[in-house]
Amino acid sequence: MEDERSFSDICGGRLALQRRYYSPSCREFCLSCPRLSLRSLTAVTCTVWLVAYGLFTLCENSMILSAAIFITLLGLLGYLHFVKIDQETLLIIDSLGIQMTSSYASGKESTTFIEMGKVKDIVINEAIYMQKVIYYLCILLKDPVEPHGISQVVPVFQSAKPRLDCLIEVYRSCQEILAHQKATSTSP
Amino acid sequence: MVLKAFFPTCCVSADSGLLVGRWVPEQSSAVVLAVLHFPFIPIQVKQLLAQVRQASQVGVAVLGTWCHCRQEPEESLGRFLESLGAVFPHEPWLRLCRERRGTFWSCEATRRQAPTAPGAPGEDQVMLIFYDQRQVLLSQLHLPTVLSDRQAGATTASTGGLAAVFDTVARSEVLFRSDRFDEGPVRLSHWQSEGVEASILAELAKRASGPICLLLASLLSLVSAVSACRVFKLWPLSFLGSKLSTCEQLRHRLEQLTLICSTRKAENPAQLMRKANTVASVLLDVALGLMLLSWLHGRSRIGHLADALVPVADHVAEELQHLLQWLMGAPAGLKMNRALDQVLGRFFLYHIHLWISYIHLMSPFVEHILWHVGLSACLGLTVALSLLSDIIALLTFHIYCFYVYGARLYCLKIHGLSSLWRLFRGKKWNVLRQRVDSCSYDLDQLFIGTLLFTILLFLLPTTALYYLVFTLLRLLVVAVQGLIHLLVDLINSLPLYSLGLRLCRPYRLAAGVKFRVLQHEAGRPLRLLMQINPLPYSRVVHTYRLPSCGCHPKHSWGALCRKLFFGELIYPWRQRGDKQD
């Protein structure tokens, strides 16, 4: 079962949340971030080339122009491969674990998997981010030494940064699965 | 809990048979290792499983049945499969079935005993997880470092979860030794059933490595015996040996080569990786050294270098002379004390004059020395670079001397000033109690003390300027040597074999796993594909870096500035005595 809804992130950009219910014990949430806008790309390229042309008229060295082209290309490739995240996915499988995948604009995917035995809970936290107060969803990990302690807080959807309404949807679904998992794991 | 069945991808197209594997009750997961085909004799199956259990210490058992219906589904086969549950008792009993030309499977798990909790179903929900057996067998799981810091006794955490699956497959290697060409009593299907994987080159290398290692080990023990003899422990040679970085590097290489050529087998994968990384590092070093050698000796570059060396040293000495003449005048508009200025300036100028004569004395031999030094590059690029660093140190020895003179003079002055300042205020340093106490001085003591204080104070700018100039020169030389040492450290400690493995066979170094949900239909069990998540490059370098000589500066920036201000001598590298691994 699949459905798609539109939300907005903390800066006002449009996000698309795709939910897939594979089975009562397996759900996937896929958040698509706004794409790289042509306007900002053109603006940055024009600024860099104007500066390079200005330096060229001062120094009369044509190496500056080729260096500017080189830098622009490398910078764009580096941005697409290392910085620009297109899609963030959260896959939660009962009694196996939680998997978070980030896919970059160049196609690279980076995945983290956390086993269910290490997950204590999924909560929505508040944070002060610059001049805003934002909400973010995070996974609390158990501390192996102290039974009631928390060893790590892993934030989810860090680059998409959706607003509270989107987070509540994801939170409710995850809590259903976690509650089901806790109920079945306590039984022998 | 949902029952998880780990099924190898190589058995997806296998014929019907029994599922052989291990049941992990804590995670409620069944790891299927192989499929045993019909026909078989139950006694022989049980014997084989007992043998495997004893050899591998893994609780291998028959977990259930696998049914791959190529033709029309047979009723008799269904009833036969059900009766097998009585022959091989196992709780719970798995029944996996793949339809003819279908992509969807059906899985059932039944428990014969009545469940203790009321209302719990007699049948469990099953989740199928496909895994690549060869990759899981060969890979090595690297748990996150956070876990290893915290615990000493919580060992159950490390064998929990997916680490148990990796562990099971890795230890059941004895089960995978037979392939379908063997004439054994039972027919198994697993990743090696089409033919056991082996490589002729690897086998030849293994056979040849024994005698080669013995030969090299004996040669190396001879070399280390020679280097440990009494002659080298006498004062001049031992002092030189501890100061020259070339000797340090040669010693390090000797240790590494002894490690590689030792005939003891590596006990765990970490030691094996360390040996392989050391071999790769030594080979790269020697290859780069030979390239440098061929470049140096081609087209008489050594001659050009030797011809250029003496004029460069002359030029440096001349520039130093100009600098001293400038200091003896009115440097940067500052007014110096004439007499002290002239004394210090003439002293240093005489030193430079001695140095130039020494260089000119050495100039006919420079080419021969350089030629022999260039030969040392065949021992490795790191040795050549260490030699270069030592040559720079020797050529700039006069700068080092000037720095020491300037620093000692400045240090004496500062100590004198601070002590006389205390006298000026009527206080004294109490050595016994390590604090400043008040003291009543006589009139003549006060008079002489104040006079000396004034003299030292007014002579301070001159000494401070000389100290500043020579310290800057010394720091420049130290920076150049530091860069060379950094490069040597990089070549020494970079784990090339691990990086190459991460690049070409990423599944061998695993940071974890990742799952992908395969095509799903409502009402059918969930199917997932488990793939290996490779270790990021930064963690590979961090985990497998080789121990280097440890020649890092031991001061923080604050301590360094403090030492410079008070005129204490700075030694940028650790001495041999406090080397740490």
Describe the protein's architecture and organization.
The complex is a heterodimer of chains A (188) and B (581). With 188 residues, chain A is an alpha+beta fold. Chain A contains 3 helices and 9 strands. In chain A, strand 1 and strand 2 (14-23) form a beta hairpin. With 581 residues, chain B is α/β, with parallel strands linked by helices. Chain B has 2 domains: 3-189, Cytidine Deaminase, domain 2, CATH 3.40.140; 294-494 and 546-566, no CATH class. Chain B has 19 helices and 14 strands. The interface between A and B is medium-sized, with 29 and 30 residues.
What's the topology here?
The complex is a heterodimer of chains A (188) and B (581).
Chain A: E1 2-8, E2 14-23, E3 26-32, H1 38-59, H2 63-83, E4 85-93, E5 97-104, E6 109-115, E7 119-129, E8 132-142, E9 150-156, H3 164-186
Antiparallel strand pairs in A: 1-2, 2-3, 3-4, 4-5, 5-6, 7-8, 8-9
Helix pairs in contact in A: 1-2
Chain B: E1 3-8, E2 17-24, E3 29-37, H1 42-56, E4 60-68, H2 75-87, E5 93-98, E6 105-110, E7 123-124, E8 126-131, H3 133-138, E9 140-141, H4 145-150, H5 156-159, H6 162-171, E10 188-189, H7 200-227, H8 235-243, H9 245-261, H10 269-297, H11 301-328, H12 338-362, H13 366-375, H14 381-395, H15 397-424, E11 427-430, E12 435-438, H16 443-493, H17 496-504, E13 509-517, E14 526-534, H18 537-544, H19 557-566
Parallel strand pairs in B: 1-3, 1-8, 4-5, 8-14, 9-13
Antiparallel strand pairs in B: 2-3, 2-4, 3-10, 5-6, 6-7, 11-12, 13-14
